[in-house]
Amino acid sequence: MRVQYLGRKGVITSALRVLGQLPAEERPAQGALANQLRTEIGQALEEARGALARRTLDRRLVEETIDITLPGYPPTIGHPHPLIILRNDIEDIFAAMGFTMSLGPEIEDEWHNFEALNIPPGHPAREMQDSFYIDAAPTGTGRLLLRTQMSPVQIRFMRAQAGRLPVRMVAPGRVYRRDDDATHSPMFHQCEGLLVDHGISFAHLKGVLSALAHRLFGPSTRIRFRPSYFPFTEPSVEVDVGCTLCNGHGCRTCKQSGWVEVLGAGMVHPRVLEAGGYDPEEVSGFAFGLGIDRLAMLRYQVDDIRAFYEGDMRCSEQF
Amino acid sequence: MRVPLSWLRTFVDWQDDVAELASALTARGLSVETVDWPGRGCAGIVAARINAISPHPTRSNLSVVELSDGHNLANVVTSATGIAPGDTVPWARPGGILPGWRTVKVRSFDGVPSAGLLCSCLDLGCALEESETLLPLDQPVGTDLVRALFLDDPVLEIELTPNYATHCQSILGVAREVAALTGGRLRMPDRMTTGECALDSFRLNVACPELCSRYVARLVRWEREPAPTPLWMVRHLCQCGIRSLSPIVDITNYVMLELGQPLHAFDRAHLHGDTVCVRRALPGEHLTTLDGREHFLQATDLVIADGMDPIALAGVMGGTGTSITEATLDVVLESAVFSADAVGHTARAHGLHSEAAQRFSRGVDPAGVTAASDRAIALLRMVGGTVYGERTFGPAEPPPRSVSLRGARLRQWMGVRLSTSAAGRLLSALGFEIQADGADRLRVNVPSWRSDVHDEVDLIEEVCRMYGYERIPATLPEGAPTTVARPPLERTADAARKVALGAGFTEVIPYTYHSRELWDRLRIPPEHPWHQAVAIANPMRVDQEVLRTTTAASLLRVLETNARYRRLDVACFEVGPVFASGTHGIAEIAVLGLAGMGCIAPQTWQGPGTPCDFFRLKGTICALAARLGIAGDRLIWSVPAAGELPTLHPGRAALLALDGVTIGWAGQCHPNVQEAFGLPDPAVLAEIQLEPLWAVDRSIVFQPIPRYPAVRRDIALLVPVERSAAEVQSALHQAATSLPDLRTEVRLFDLYQGKGVPAGWRSLAFTLWFQAERTLRDEEVDQAMALVVRAVTDAVGASLRGADLSAWQPPH
Lengths: 319, 812
Hints:
heterodimer; A: BirA Bifunctional Protein, domain 2; 10 helices; B: 21 helices; 40 strands; 29% strand
């Protein structure tokens, strides 16, 4: 159409070409008329072309419609382990309070696992039925065993610090005991913590452990400190939090008491400070230990501890 | 330990209700686990006299009893036997409530209405199990039995920590704590001393005073059979879970529960030589204990013997030969202190964890020996006994002990500004005697029953406990945070976790031990290093025999578990230790273990799944190394020697070395292993040590970003199959890097064998990127390509399949 009217041999172009043959007085009017016509046709053509392009695009967009309800492509990402999630949470809380993390061997000797922790030979906690002993010749520091608690890391860390202050450490790790039922696994996880410095008191123990409980269980969690007994701390304390399942009204998890035991702690016994190379007359400190498995069971409402260790993907993929 | 509140109330008064008392005791360290209160709300049970008994008209096993409680007459149908007119029996009236919230109603038995019922011993909480016999009551008719037998009495169930077990394992011990809590006064029960006793032929001989510091023997006799145990005593014993046996035995048990001092009664008529001797057992001696078991004794066992043989395991259990019987009329009553260690040892060695052994092995109050004997004599007199003789050994009171308490030390440990006088008041409430010892210092005399208190820190604990943990403020410590860094191994483990999770592997924490039998399933021969494991000396189960030497042992069991549930697509990893036992002793090595079978990414509607195969593991390990800044050319993958990785498919296994040192392996499991673990598809496994990854020299040096675009060329090479991909790649790389002022990168993007490629050959297609600090012209790049192709065809015998861009496909 453009060629027919506006092309070199088109109607308008031809009309303009013959303009010169018209009388001079008619030329301006006719010329203006032809030019106007040319402009109008050109505009009409542009519009028609634009509309056509829009229609084409509209049609294409309709054709390209996808079913957005189809599932997205799942990224290939694995699932973290619930015990590691909880362990990381605990580590983060203590890192923010200036505690460093420490490790120790899973195969320990009796000196580190018991003696240095004020558990002398003959103490009931040392009996064979509680610990897995290693089939090996005893060392100068006693028989070898799979560590039954994370507390030996306290001793190792203090000795490595060689008297430097402050001692602020947390030690999460695997421990082993000869125990096996729905709430006890022969292999399980604990996190031990230790703070030794000048002037550390029971009030500091309460401050740090309250902060931990509030960060782990929520700022409005009720906390109870009650006297208990551990050979390596004195005074010793058991920390309970208000049962989160029943809000303290009593349920199966809290054995109708409204409270759930979450960790044990206490002021480091002077003999343990001495075993770590510190003078109990100069410094004091507190230590605590919590069962990561137990806390994870509470947090995720897992009723059989073995779920953490079987590697059943139907369990793993819930985390 | 069970504490009936009615019993506790005989020692001390308090105002609080049960729940408040329980929480106050818990807050002071006597953890009240539950309040057992079966008789809560009990009412309407009285003592009634039987006026007449007539048989039930239709049911022969029942009788109809006419009762009177002094005010009313009633007819009650009962199955009880052995009752006679004139007897006093417990009657639950209609409208009354029995323990367990059972309401008593008028009930009809074949048309005969029964106004309530006669209560059994169990109903009255005076028996541990159901019995048909009725209690013979000695109460006057009309007595309210709910009050007289404290049927609505709550019992506290207290879990004692080992340090409180020394002094709180008795009603008296708990009463002391209650008195200290409330400021109430402690009432001691009736006691009776022997007074003057006639001389007697009975002899006491303590042959090992180091194991028996105090022994009191009292002689008690009866003219006729002892009177029955009073009902209140039967009831208290029952509340504590102890069956009533005979008056004499009941009284020894009662005093043990009440005062914490175990007692034992011997029938004097059966003592040879009229002698009681405390000595070590002799070789060959044996004893049958009251539970009917025969024990062969060792010299480590402390025994009570008569003139000939052992008659009891001291502090643990008596023997049958001298035990109290219905015929017993003459008794030697023992109250003594035996060595806690000796009793504990004997109890464990013979598996006899009696109530007495529990108390002796934690330590009894040496000053309480005489008091307990006195208390028992007062009670024995109630059942008709007469004391007629006494022999004692050792001091009545142990030497006094005192411990210093410094005020400054106390305040520093507590974090509370407490004066020594305030601390002294808290301690004296518990029975400690306080003396000022200079300014800000106390001299504290420890009472005889507190054998758990030795040091200043023990006193600090007592002060904290009595002050109340809840009153101590909670403050955050000041001072600089530690400057010790997070352990590098843990940082490496974090990186391993992040990379593995990001690569699609799920974290598992399998057990680190397994059975010896597993080695067969893993195809590990005895001489293989993986067989040199650390053994557990005392496993509970067969799958705890040895500590693993490789994560393959754990991860294959994870795959097995999932396969059992038909879960066949699994990709998992763990970060944990493996254990090695060698000439250098035992080593713990932290590793990352990877395992998979089936697909790591599932099939979607968009396309097929991504298999979890050898190359997935290899790629993940390389990514971890890259993440830790280890240049790719420092990792060398090599084919293992025959038998080196017996668990793996010999043609699909690789060793991994970093800077020439082997640090791991990867591969597909051997078909036999696959079968042994019941896996329908081949599984892949890998393991890499974490410590070498952080121990290596780490170097990331930033390269300036080029300002000119790179030029890309693709080539496909026909290569003999015996030439490895690595050889071809390295030949290409070598040729390309030898070009002057050009930077090049080589990447394999396609591998093809089959139609169009001659047998014995395969096609490897590579992308080469050329980069220079100027605009590269096509001719330059073509020239470079020609050089590279010539070099690589010479080096590995490859031939150009053509600069075949049409064969190029985008890499996945």
